[in-house]
Amino acid sequence: MKAEIPPGTLSLLLLRTVARIGPMHGYGIAQYVAQISNEVLQIEEGTLYPALQKMLVKGWLEGEWRITENGRRARYYGLTRTGRKQLALELKNFDRVSHAIQQVIQTA
Amino acid sequence: MFFRKLFAWRRRSRIHSEIDEEIQTHLAMKAADSSGDAEARRAFGNVGTIQEDSREAWTWPTLESWLQDIRHAFRGFRRAPAFTLITIATLALAIGANTAILTLADALLLRPLPFPDPDRLAMVFLDATQQGFPRGDIAPGHVTEMRRNVRAFSTAGLARADANITGDGDPVRFKSGLVTANFFDVVGMRPLRGRFFENGEDQPGRDGVVILTYEVWKSRYNLSPSIIGQDIRINETPTRVIGILPPGFQFYYHADLWMPLSMSPEKWANRHSFYMYAVGRLRDGVSWADCAAEMDSVSQYIFAQDSAEDRRQKLIAVPVREELTSKVRWGVFALTAGALCVLLIAAANVAGLLLSRAMSRSSELAVRAALGAGSWRLARQLFTENMVLALLGGLSGIVVAHFSLHFLKPLIPSSMTGYTELAIDGRVLAILIAASLLTGILCGVGPAWRMASTDPNLALRQGGARMSGSSGQAGARRWFILGEVALTVVLLIAAGLLFQTFTRLRGIDAGFRADHVLTMDTILSPKYQTLDRRTGFYNEVLERVAALPGVLSVAYSSTTPLNWRGGIMTIDIEGKPPQRQSAMYRHVTDDYFKTFGISQQSGRVFDSRDRMGSQPVAVINKTMAAQFWPGENPVGQRVRIMMVPDWLTIIGVVADVKEMGLDKAQKAILYVGYRQGGASFAAPAALAVRTYGDPVQLTGAIRREILAVNPEQPVSNVMALDDLVDSQLTDRRVQAQLFGAFAGAALLLACIGLYGVISYAVTTRTREFGIRLALGAEPLAVVGLVLAGGMRLVAAGVIIGVAIAFYATRWLGTMLFEIRATDPWTFALAPTAVLSVAVIACLVPAWRTTRIDPLESLRAD
Questions:
Q1: Option in A45, A53, A54 nearest B26 (CB)
Q2: Nearest beta carbon to residue B54 from set A25, A49, A68
Q3: CA–CA dist B119, B321 (Å, integer)
Q4: pTM for the predicted model, two decimal places
């Protein structure tokens, strides 16, 4: 079953993915997230590309054009130093929030 | 991030193509993975939207869409040039008028006075309200008493005089201020160069010093620093320049240079010649109320020995700012109110125009809404258009204001011309732009709100014209018209009252015939200190000028009428207890009354019999006769000027000359023949020449004759007497004209608005009128129906306007002369004018109903 990506977590997902698999194109990133999450998290193209562009503008990612295994030109997104810092920050935040949410759920 | 975006702007086409390519690649990869291209694209969603959204990361979306709105706005204006032009012109006129008036108000009321802490400075006047003169000059003795007894402030005395500078260039006459040595301390000035007067420099013998204004230093001495310490010739006397004033300094009246007021102790004790002013700076901790209380007690003491009548007068201390602005304040307030009315009317009209434009565009807007533009987005578009219009109007308004300032110049009184000027400065500009934007917001909110709350579905189905009949819209416009008509009536009534004031003042009998007379001033130097020498000079000039071709008669006198409100002396009447009444004191030559056309009431006027040594005689005016000898014949009676031992025998009575000003109460005047004139302060200085033809043409010839008598004699204030009288009324004329212009503009705007509303009603109700006509209504009855609808609105506006005017015009109070603020004629005429113009504005569109073809109108959808 597909699920909505919780607001605010998209950039975390993208940064984490790039951090794990290295520079990758948009399609690859979306595929990877879908596979790892057992098709639960599906990143729509309509949110994927604007988000990637914003992260380029903010300097978290850098883009590089490469040729794919199938011979297509694609932009590969890699993590920058600021991107790495941002990832750490967002991870910490997410941990805190999800921990808090779990506490609430358990006590209830 | 900011810089990344900034640089991105330059390579945006590359960024765009990269995003496009990336998305194409994505599509291709997705297609390869799944069954087919179309499937991939469907799963992908709207490619265009994704591209747009991705690009947006690199942009300032709000800024760019505003810019886009502005571009749209201009495109829209080009499609509707008539609408755009009318709107901008309306706003430009209204905002321009307001800017100009605001600049005037700023110059007159708000600009700082050219000396420190002016709100602690007091001017002292003689308050003789019961005689009609609430702000009179004071006598040296009053200044002496105040310096001795008043604790509330330190007092400085000042008087005005003329100064002829000769020897270092063309002989020129300057105005000088004569002041006690503490004057600049009291006023609180510091010299720009050199020093100010020292203690004791206002004593005879040490008084040969002068302080120049910056303006004279610049114009006559080219800012040369070496002039300080040098002697210049003032009134033929070497006088040392000791200091320069900072630029722009003026105090109460215009002076080019400042000299010590040095007088003998006897003169300082004189309480019967009124030609001085006093200024004081309140001591720390003293309030204006304390000051007024002390002035009252000092006055009681000073006037204790005077007649019952005179004991009612007193010395008053008035804040200098109040004194400088009190004469102009109401005029400025009234003009500001008038300009604001015009702005309100203009704004109402523009709002009406914008509403109808929005209505006529509703199908266009509905199409855009259906194509996906959000209603908020469209409302913003409309709002932007209106703001752009308002700003364009405001900018054109600056141009209008710039060129209309010229007409406002006469409204700045001469006491303020030295330091204040009409210029649109940053503050006024800021207010102007804020006002334009506010106008834009107020006018634009209606259409924008309407857009935001319109259901595009409904709009599309109904089509433009039909849906715009919504009653709320038409209702708003009708309210606007009501308000416009009311304000127009108020402005028309105010303009009418001011115009009548002006014509009444023009029609006043000033006591002399102003046509064909040339006047000029020749202030004599101390070379002519003795009466003999003066008389010699006058006789020679009179003889030479009288011999010029075209000259009817020529005369010298202390002053040209209307020019000098001072020179008032206390008078004793023989055989009556000391009355201490006062009269203006004037020296004149024999042909004075003939030259000015002042009619003789009884007795005779001066002639060659009245010499030094013969019986001292005087001529008085009608008012003096009535005031001093009610019911008696004054001819043969004798009067004496205080401090002068000789009794003067009255030989004749002449008509009243309005020496105090056209709109002021008439004062008693005592004329003395120049050959017998002792007091040198009233020595004749004004030459008047009555001519056959245009008097101004004789200027050169007369000046040559004067220079032939004394080559060093400056001649100043050359003016036709007509122009002099006119200049007295310039401010009244300009006020009346401005209000006339406001009222005219208001009437025009209200009519345009009315025309618009009625045309609109005719267009939207065509079908209804068609049915009426088809059912047999008379075409004229339909015209009447429309006309009545419009005129009901106008009549309501007129009634409200008259009611407002009834209360508002009393604020014109001091601006009016010999006319009641509720003058019935004006209150009848203005509404009549509005009603008749409104009938035309309604009738033109109403007549169009006669061209309605019933069949056509019923068939058309």
A1: A45
A2: A49
A3: 7
A4: 0.71
**Dist. CA A32–CA A24, nearest whole Å:** 10
For residue B651, give the amino acid letter. Answer: I
Q: How far is Cα B634 from Cα B652, in angstroms, rounded to an integer?
A: 8
CA-wise closest residue to B825 among B504, B398, B551, B591: B504
Q: Which of A49, A73, A74 sits opposite B19 (nearest CB)?
A: A49
Q: Are B104 and B411 in contact (CB under 8 A)?
A: yes
Of the pLDDT bands very low, low, confident and very high (cuts 50, 70, 90), residue A86 is very high
Asked whether the beta carbons of residue A53 and residue B8 sit closer than 8 angstroms, the reply is: no
How buried is B360 (Cβ within 10 angstroms: 0-12 exposed, 13-18 middle, 19+ buried)?
A: middle
- The Cα of B402 is separated from the nearest Cα of chain A by a number of Å equal to 48
For chain A, how are helix, strand and coil distributed in percent, rounded to 5? 60, 15, 25
In the numeric block, which tokens belong to residue B696?
């101004």
pLDDT of residue B861: 52
**Measured between CB atoms, does A69 come within 8 Å of chain B?**
no
Residues 142-161 of B with CB under 8 A from A: none
DSSP, collapsed to helix, strand or coil, labels residue A39 as coil
Distances (CA, A) of B33 to A37, B30, B117, B332: 19, 5, 86, 82
Instruction: Kindly provide the ipTM of the predicted complex, given to two decimals.
Output: 0.85
Pairwise CB contact (< 8 Å): B50 & A49: yes
pLDDT at B800 over 90: yes
DSSP string covering B586-598: EEE-TTHHHHHTP
B700-748 per-position pLDDT tens digit: 899 899 988 888 888 888 888 888 888 778 778 888 888 888 899 899 8
- Which residues of B are less than 8 Å from A56 in CB distance? 57
Yes or no, beta carbons of B53 and A56 under 8 Å apart: no
Interface list for A 74-103 with B (CB within 8 A)? 74-75
Cα B474 to Cα B468: distance, rounded to the nearest angstrom: 9
Phi, psi dihedrals of residue B577, rounded to the nearest 5°? -60, 150
Decide if pLDDT at B327 tops 90: no
The Cα A41–Cα A14 span in angstroms is 12
Amino acid at A92: K
The residue of chain A nearest to residue B50, with distances taken between CA atoms, is: A46
| Dist CA B159 CA B530 (whole Å) | 22
First vs last C-alpha separation in chain A: 26
CB proximity A68 to B under 8 Å:
yes
In this structure, the strands spanning B568-573 and B638-641 are: antiparallel
Give the tens place of pLDDT for each residue, A7-24.
778 889 999 999 999 899
Strand B648-654, strand B617-621: pairing: parallel
Sheet strands (E) in B626-738: 638-641, 648-654, 669-673, 686-691, 716-720
Within an 8 Å CB–CB cutoff, is residue B66 touching chain A? no
Q: In chain B, which residues have their Cβ closer than 8 Å to the Cβ of A32?
A: none
Collapse the DSSP code of B128 into the 3-class scheme (helix H, G, I; strand E, B; otherwise coil) and give the result: strand
The DSSP 8-state label assigned to residue B400 in this structure reads H
Burial class (CB in 10 A: 0-12, 13-18, 19+), B130: exposed
Alpha-carbon distance of B585 to B624, in angstroms, equals 12
Our CA-based measurement puts residue B374 at a distance from the nearest CA of chain A, in whole angstroms, of: 20
* Contact of B814 with B468, CB cutoff 8 Å: no
Beta strands in B251-404 (DSSP E): 257-260, 273-274, 277-282, 314-319
Helix axes B375-408, B320-360, angle to 10 degrees: 140
